[in-house]
Amino acid sequence: MVVDYWSVERYRFGLVIGCGALVAWFTPHPLPIMILVLLSYIGWMLYKLYQLQRWLTNGQKPEEMPDSDGAWEQIAYLFHKAQQKSQERKRKQQELLTRFDNVLSALPDAAILLDADNHIQWANKSAAKLLGIIDNNDRGKRIDTLLRNPDLHKLLEENSERKVTFPSPRNSNLTLRARLLPLQGGSRVLSVRNISEGVQLQKTRKAFIANASHELRTPLTVLTGYMELFEQDPELPEYLLAPLQQSREQAARMQQIISDMLALSRLESQETTPLMGNRVDMPAMLENSIQAIRDTLAADTHRLETQIEPDLCICGSEKDINSVITNLLANSVKHTPPGTTIYIRWHSEADGQACFSVEDNGPGIPEKHLPHLTERFYRVDEGRSRASGGTGLGLAIVKHVMQWHNGTLKIESKPGRTSFRACFPAKRVLD
């Protein structure tokens, strides 16, 4: 049933006025009596207001709620209900925060909440295991004073989402990878993951590939030598000549795969950027490579057009840079149909870079394949690549050589145009 609290107040006010008027009627001074009655009513109302204010100030305890009726009862009840709802809301929020904290604390990745000035606001348990940062002890401290790693400091200054790898300050045998995740208000979360197992697996894989390639090279050389002897034997039956030639071609292809795997393994094992290296005469190297391609792969099938700056030389590893030239040229010839025109350029850019580009007017490469072209053994057309003798490692080698020389490899393709562009930084360009 809905209670009309203001009807109680109207009744009370009417009763006070009526009683006051009745008393004043029988006295010789009715006005002072009525004023006194009204002042008494106002005083009583102020007392109720004081009780309500004191109850609210003391924490709105249910046992201390003012005992009244009418509008005062409703006001006290509404305040009490609002307090109960607020407490319930706080309880649920606290449960949610506790559950969220438990989830983050159970994660194997370290999570550290930072403000805009890199002060630690919160850290989970994994931060203590991986970084030695303890929430209760280090809260409020600057993280760059606790973790003295240049790469991590640079990441914090850049405020970017790139990833950096560094050894754990708690255990030098652990390799960690960190990234920053932006939040609202300038806050950020530093997420740090232990990638030691993946790094070790990568090293094991590289060692296995290198060792297996070395072990396969000697017996394969012996087999190839014997096949060449058999092929030159005048008494060899004619029906065995074709299978023997095919076997020798496949053995040569396997030798090329092994050589590429060894080259790629060597490049991947070089974790730091090399010194500037020796002077590389790119124009002369390009002329030799282009002429070799013209005489072999592109003979009577492709048209090669060149534009080479004659005095543009760079510093680096001549052997590795030559592999970039050879792989890009051979790749463009092998994977385009006869009659294709290939445009080869070696030129300087306005920003000082030196760029080697190979562009053709072939059918192009579907866009979905472009991000995967530099992956090892990746082929757009499996059948055509095998028929052309490709190993699937050429572009992977090119990518690692360019990274090792602080350069970039950019691949663009659309129907009727495919471009491979390898650019060396200005600091490697010789005047």
From TrEMBL:
SUPFAM superfamilies cross-referenced by the UniProt entry: ATPase domain of HSP90 chaperone/DNA topoisomerase II/histidine kinase (SSF55874), Homodimeric domain of signal transducing histidine kinase (SSF47384), PYP-like sensor domain (PAS domain) (SSF55785)
Family annotation (Pfam families): HATPase_c (PF02518), HisKA (PF00512), PAS (PF00989), PhoR (PF11808)
Keyword Transferase: yes
Subcellular localization: Cell membrane
Superkingdom to which the source organism belongs: Bacteria
Domain Histidine kinase positions: 211-428
Gene Ontology molecular functions: kinase activity
This protein's record includes keyword Membrane: yes
Catalytic activity annotation: ATP + protein L-histidine = ADP + protein N-phospho-L-histidine
InterPro entries to which the protein is assigned, alphabetical: BphY/WalK/GraS-like, HATPase_C_sf, HATPase_dom, His_kinase_dom, HisK_dim/P_dom, HisK_dim/P_sf, PAS, PAS-like_dom_sf
Entry EC number(s): 2.7.13.3
Span of domain PAS: 96-167
Keywords per UniProt: ATP-binding, Cell membrane, Kinase, Membrane, Nucleotide-binding, Phosphate transport, Phosphoprotein, Transferase, Transmembrane, Transmembrane helix, Transport, Two-component regulatory system
Segments crossing the lipid bilayer: 12-27
Family annotation (NCBIfam families): phoR_proteo
Function: Member of the two-component regulatory system PhoR/PhoB involved in the phosphate regulon genes expression. PhoR may function as a membrane-associated protein kinase that phosphorylates PhoB in response to environmental signals.
Protein name in UniProt: Phosphate regulon sensor protein PhoR
Organism: Thiothrix lacustris
Encoding gene per record: phoR
